[in-house]
Amino acid sequence: MAEFDLAASFIPSLHKPASLLPIARHRQSLLYLIETYPVTIVVGQTGSGKTTQIPQYLEQAGWCSDGKVIAVTQPRRVAATTVAIRVAEEVGCKVGAEVGYSIRFEDVTSAATRIKFLTDGLLLREALVDPLLSRYSVIMVDEAHERSLSTDILLGVLKKILKKRPNDLRIIISSATLQAEDFLNFFKGDADAEPKVEKSDALTLDELIAQGSSNNQGADAELGGSIGRIINLEGRTYPVDILYLEKPAEDYVEKAVQTVFDIHTKEPDGDILVFLTGREEIDTAVQAISERAASLHPRAQSLMALPLYAGLSTEQQMYVFEEAPENTRKVIFSTNIAEASVTIDGIVYVVDSGYVKLRAFNPTTGIETLTATPVSKASATQRAGRAGRTKPGKCFRLYTEASFQSLEEATVPEIQRSNLAPVILQLKALGIDNIVRFDFITPPPAELVIRALELLYSLGALDDYAKLTRPLGIRMAELAVEPMMAKTLLSAPSFGCLSEILTIAAMTSLGGNIWFHHDGEKKRMESARRKFAVEEGDHLTLLNVYQAFVTKGRKEAKFCHDHYLNFKALSRAVSIRAQLKRYLERFGMNVEESLSSSNANKQPLSVGGGGGPDKGEQIRRCLTTGFFAHAAKMQPDGTFRNVAGGTVLHAHPSSLMFNRKADWVIFHEVMETGNKTFIRDVTKIEKNWLVEYAPEFYKIQR
Ligand code: CDP
Ligand code: MG
Predict the structure, then answer these.
(1) Confidence of residue 128 (pLDDT cuts 50, 70, 90)
(2) Closest residue by CA, ligand 1 atom 10
(3) What is the rounded CA–CA span in Å between residue 621 and residue 185?
(4) Which residue numbers delimit the Helicase C-terminal domain (predicted)?
(5) Quick one: which of 198, 354, 432, 450 has the most CB atoms within 10 Å?
(6) What is the DSSP code (8-state) at residue 436?
(7) Alpha-carbon distance 305 to 324, whole Å?
(8) Closest Cα to residue 128, out of 586, 629, 689?
(9) 224 shares a domain with 201
(10) In degrees rounded to 5, what are phi and psi of residue 374?
């Protein structure tokens, strides 16, 4: 085919018209199915238009009349925000107007919002106040194939809700891979799970039967077929060549960087998408590309590396969707996020490390880790598919073909490898007391359930009959933080440190993005960090940082700059704190009183102060009431052992306890990197506090 240089005289449209998306041809059948059946399963390649178009079709078809809202859930916060921004753009409104999003601690919706993107976890939370989710006419559970913990729970809850709202609620489940049958079978379930068929509607039923035979087992079309249908939007894709390594790579990050350079220098135009597992790897790779790009021939096409992971700000994430400048090839280093949740146009080459970071909870040690794990075949296939969206592509797998053959078929659903305490608490609060009999799409292993019940019991959220306690258990479920922190917050008034714990809760929920430094400033950042250090540990240090921020840093941007503090993250902490405070006030807890005590306290806790005589101890005691299960003892060699004894834990380099002496400590979280397990946000405690505040737990342990 001859290539004309049309680019000179034509300006490309901002977006590919939505009418050209694969989904457009299916608009009528989609709307018909959704109108007719309680459940519609939509299967389609990533990029076919499910997330961005379906809600718009529904809105236009009148599903938002009488003030109802369409909810679209996402397993990831990032996906919820980016997609909302995109759809608002297509609709031509501001985000938060007709189209909005809602993620934990960030609600960008208004009374005008008709299409609402939100995380699946947040929708579950909404069910606490609106048990039938009655404000929604349609709930689309997007990216269901990811089988996130909250997605699975949500599906079970929706199945229950559907029994109560068989006629006015529609559920759409969208999935990138073919697990559609599983989802439909789940909703079919036992006979009494069937919503009643409109008997008068015989004609429609006939139609259904006629229609249904194409995608369902014929037998079920008689009655069982009334629950739902599967629709397949076979999106257009181009062939993707798959290339393997001859022998395994020692360091896949390094190999990925090399491969990117090889593609850049040897392969024709087209952007590159690289799958790595997390932020650190991605930052390393981006940096390596920037450094080595300098060695490229000055007249050669340049190479622009961009990161994509959940911790980035919305603006930073948006860069990856922008077209690269002229004569520049874009390379995006991404976590699993780009596997299916977001679509980046122009990708022709995929480099797949073969790894993904997965959460795994060990019920024996009680430790949850986030570990780089080999992907499943389904994931690898999905990743490769990202290369063939606009023209034939290539996928470079940084592993051997034999390793590919030995991969699991599909990723183990999160529900089978997670700490279930938060979701069990939520289910209980939704009135689902018998967890074992709850309709799980895949049931969790018994030991995970038992472990979660034990923890909730020792936290005081459950009574001897495994019923939610009042008010403690109920309140813990309502608070938008995980159970251990919820308990800490709710214990705080009795230690006279509610204001401080509110701050600590807000700061720890930022997930370690408090510090900020440019390349080569790491040393200076470290010493800046030490200025806020409090001997007793990281939690009190976080408190110091926050105090300094609200008294000085909020007003002068220079303060944050000089102290290597992340202005955005800290501003977020202020907002999160305010939201948590509102919860507590709703419970009738007096936050004002402790605010004044925090003022009194400013002095003893201030920079380098080492904590007041009592306040610091009260805070540490209070933390112990929630985090006793995350206790560890320092060993002579400076490492820690958790209570169960088996696991060697290292203080994270960002922790004050790194290279310092301590005896017993509690920690906020555990991270496994490489073959080391790190604990982060660590604070010294006394051993006897553990028995004092968690006698049951320490009895169970023995
Ligand atoms: O949900 P699904 O993967 O089926 O597709 P989608 O996210 O609705 O994307 C449909 C189209 O919109 C794709 O061609 C994307 O390239 C485009 N899109 C975009 O350009 N920017 C976004 N933030 C989201 C989608
Ligand atoms: Mg999508």
Answers:
(1) very high
(2) 49
(3) 49
(4) 256-431
(5) 354
(6) G
(7) 10
(8) 586
(9) yes
(10) -60, 140
Give the N- to C-terminal CA distance of the chain in Å, as an integer.
75
pLDDT in tens, 288-328: 999 888 887 777 788 999 999 887 777 777 788 888 888 89
- Pick from 194, 217, 233: which residue ends a domain? 233
User: What does the pLDDT look like over 259-269, one tens digit per residue?
Assistant: 999 999 999 99
In terms of domains, do 489 and 608 share one?
Answer: yes
| Atom of ligand 1 lying closest to residue 83 CA | 23
Question: Containing H/E element for 394?
Answer: strand 393-397
Contacts of 86 (CB under 8 A, 6+ apart): 52
5-56 confidence digits (pLDDT tens): 544 455 545 556 677 788 899 999 999 999 999 999 999 888 889 999 999 9
DSSP string, 19-64: GGSGGGGGHHHHHHHHHH-SEEEEEE-TTSSHHHHHHHHHHHTTTT
Q: Which atom of ligand 1 is nearest to the CA of 82?
A: 23
Distance of CA 284 to the CA centre of its chain: 22
Placement of tokens 């018209």 in the chain: 17
Q: Rounded to an integer, what distance in angstroms lies between the CA atom of residue 58 and that of residue 63? A: 6
H-assigned helices in 144-278: 149-164, 180-188, 202-212, 252-266
Ligand 1 touching residue 52 (CB < 6 A): yes
Residues 213 and 244 in one domain: no
Q: What is the DSSP letter of 553?
A: I
Residues 334, 355 contacting (CB under 8 angstroms): no
Q: Which of 19, 51, 52, 320 to mutate to test the pocket of ligand 1 (most atoms within 8 A of CB)?
A: 52
Structure tokens, 519: 């390349």
Cβ atoms 126, 51 nearer than 8 A: no
Spatial separation of the C-alpha atoms in residues 428 and 416, rounded to whole Å: 19
Q: Is residue 448 part of a domain?
A: no
> Would you say the CB of residue 74 lies under 6 angstroms from ligand 1?
no
Give the mean model confidence (pLDDT) for residues 563-581.
Answer: 92
This prediction's pTM: 0.84
Bridge partners (DSSP) of residue 468 are 462
Single out the residue in 395, 415, 435 at which a domain terminates. Answer: 415
User: Quick check: CB of 386 below 6 Å from ligand 1?
Assistant: no
- With a cut of 50, say whether residue 573 has pLDDT above it: yes
CATH number of the domain to which 275 belongs: 3.40.50.300
The DSSP code for 18 is G
Cα of 176 from ligand 2 centre, angstroms: 8
Residue of 172, 343, 344, 345 to mutate, ligand 1, most atoms within 8 A of C-beta: 343
Q: Is 323 in the pocket of ligand 1 (CB under 6 A)?
A: no
List the structure tokens of 36. 């007719």
Sequence-ordered list of residues with C-beta below 8 angstroms from that of 594, at least 6 positions apart, any chain: 492, 493, 496, 497, 498, 499, 500
Cis preceding linkage at 422, omega within 30: no
**CB of 51 sitting under 6 A from ligand 1:** yes
Q: Helix, strand, or coil here: 450?
A: helix
Rounded average pLDDT over 183-212: 50
Give 574: exposed, middle or buried? Use CB within 10 Å, 0-12, 13-18, 19+: middle
Ligand 1 nearest-atom number relative to CA 54: 8
